[in-house]
Amino acid sequence: MKTRYNLPCNIAQTLNIIGDRWTLLIIHEILIGQNTFNNIKKSLDGISSNLLSERLKELEEQGLVVSELYSAHPPRYQYTLTEKGTELEPVFNSLLIWGSIHLEKCYKKLIDPTTGEELEIGYYSKKTGKRAKSIQVKTVEYELQ
Asked: What gap in Å lies between CA 134 and CA 103, rounded to an integer?
């Protein structure tokens, strides 16, 4: 993993994994079903084959993506997200919601497919399952070893 941000911060450490140019877009394409190299490349106009290949390898090394050979001659792979990769879906949903509120041109909205109504993100207690009325970011102390 490249360490661009050497900060004791979840956001900084997460960006060390997924913060490179194109990486989040590649993950999103796989999440929505574009699972071959050619389909991902076609969906991401402007990304070079070399860069896409490099990013997919990095995502595999980080345990976010797995590849499976589906054609031996020539070798072709399909990509799927691991559980760790799939758990980024709320991040994408949050970005969609933010964009639907703040972008001049809104390309996508997060909706309830049964009602068509727009959705928002909520926070719930891991212990009780109840929706939180307020949230706070708490720093967790770790002992240096």
From this structure: 26
DSSP sequence for 59-97: HHHTTSEEEEEEETTTTEEEEEE-HHHHTTHHHHHHHHH
* C-alpha gyration radius of the chain: 18
Distance CA 30, CA 40 (A): 7
- Using CB atoms within 10 Å of the CB of residue 145, give its burial: 0 to 12 exposed, 13 to 18 middle, 19+ buried: exposed
pTM equals 0.87
Query: Per DSSP, what are the bridge partners of residue 66?
Result: 80
Of 91, 123, 93, residue with least CA distance to 109? 93
pLDDT digits (tens, 9 = 90+) for 111-125: 999 999 999 999 999
Amino acid at 87: E
What is the token pair recorded at 130?
């109840």
Q: What is the pLDDT of residues 74-107, one digit of tens each?
A: 989 999 999 999 999 999 999 999 999 999 998 9
Between CA 69 and CA 76 the distance in angstroms is 6
